[in-house]
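ping. complex inputs:
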Amino acid sequence: MTRSRTAAAALILVVAAAVLLAVRFGSVALSTGDVVDALRGRGDPIKRDIVVGLRLPRALLGALVGGGLALAGATFQALLRNPLAEPYILGISGGAAAAAVTVLALGLVSAGSWVLPAAAFGGALLAIFLVFRVASAADRSFDVRVLLLAGVVVGAFFSAMIALWFTLSEASTVRSAVLWMMGSLAGADWGIVVTAAAYTLPAGMVLVALARPLDLLAIGEETATYLGVNVEQVKRLAFGMASLITAAGVAVAGGIGFVGLIVPHAVRLVVGSGHRALLPLSFLAGSAFLVLADVVARLVIAPAEIPIGVVTAFTGVPLFLVLLRKSLR
Amino acid sequence: MLASVTLGACGDAGAGRQVERGASASQVVVTDASGRVVRFDRPPTRVLSLVPAVTQMLVELGAGDALVGRTNYDTLAVVRALPSVGGGLQPDLERLLTLRPELVIRFEGAQDPVTGAALDERSIPHLAVRPDRIEDVRTIVRQMGQVMGLIAAADALVADLDRQLEDVRTRVAGAERTRVAYVLGGTPPWVAGPETFIADLLYVAGGENVFADLDRLYGSVSLEELVTRDVNLFIVRRGTVVNPRLRDRAPVVEVSQDVESPGTALGRSALELAQVLHPDAFR
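pong. complex structure:
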């Protein structure tokens, strides 16, 4: 436990440092004094707007989405007892993308900037509903193998739907959809941060509270039942909460790959697989990772941005390989 | 007319203008391509155009001095020295704010849901444009003239464009229309449909778009459809990769990339296309 306490303290510092870094640096060069003034509500109004209206909400959204994806990924890996599980494995991003492309293709987006996230969230929930429905219809005990298969099948259906829309739509719609699917934190504002937090934080706390039953589930469902876990209830609750977090993340930032798959593994290599440490630490590590990745994404070819998924993969893969080597030694 | 005179007088005295031009008497009201009504009490002195074709129009109208930034896609030499905000879609908002624009011109549509909302939130006026057809280009030029107080220059620019188009029309008049498909590349290939400035240009240049039945601006068609249509010529932008089968069906002619720019180069583009479609008329 001491090891995970130290790791937690270190990660909290890293998250704080990452957010400060994200607020300090951007495509416009501001001095530390400018940034401090802006945070205290003083100084030039445009610099204040850049720091408080653009950089800070974007950093916080990155922290919420990155943390949420890593936490959801760790949960899915435990529930499905599959190291390849990631937040999108149940077709959630497919459902969100299909809904996003549908509103883009039908031209409904002009009604307001809330339409796209709302549709994506609805699509993600629909995907979850379909997958759970299939899984419970096929097998009353909510078999994880059936669930996994249902996720793949539902995901494939939504991919096909996206391809169909692409064929039938204007080039501009296709471009909008591809940009959206690549994922970005560019849409961040305070309203979105509050919305993302309202879903991610409570659901995240529920998952952390389920750490012990998840430990037992990881050993095996039968063992967990013998040890007094209400397996069905825990599974449904954990799947539901992890899916909700993923849906909220996809809705506000599109599909950002890699964080939800690799961060939990990296954390596991450091603190082991006990969920009481793994889940909160994955959240912190995912937060720090995505915030830092976004700083890189914003700065490298400023004023243009590189897709954040490119940064997460380019930096995460070497980092993970180093950790893996160390743990094998 | 009054507006253009006043602007000329006030080019370097922003404070004086508000006094000279009363509030409502000289207020300019335009409806943009997204249907929003935007009001201007005076011509904006700091303009950021996220649409390269419109940037070029502003320069040709003589409003180049009002430009405060550019995108990475602007090629005009006079604009290259200005700071860039990145792409025209989802530009860098930090840089955009730092430029303190009084007007932002942006692409209409869902491709960039972020920028319009961010500008609204900060009460920065913005105009959405959608240069789909030649008529849209005329409208945008006139709108820019109104907004910038350069109505005479805008009328002249539109008249100039119309004259160039008319010259081309006259040149190819009487010749039998060449049946063409404008191919944008891709597999299956994308082609220009009827409601596009490219189709308009082809018509002016004495061509007939064989995909006049396409129900979208630009869309993909099957290769089968492309090679079975009665077509005399395929036209592509220079460097476009096309399926070799097209060449078996009809010649594939390359044109300059200006042809895909919906701006003041339309006159030149019509001429270039006419020379390709009806070389005899230019001998």
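The longest helix of chain A spans residues 45-80.
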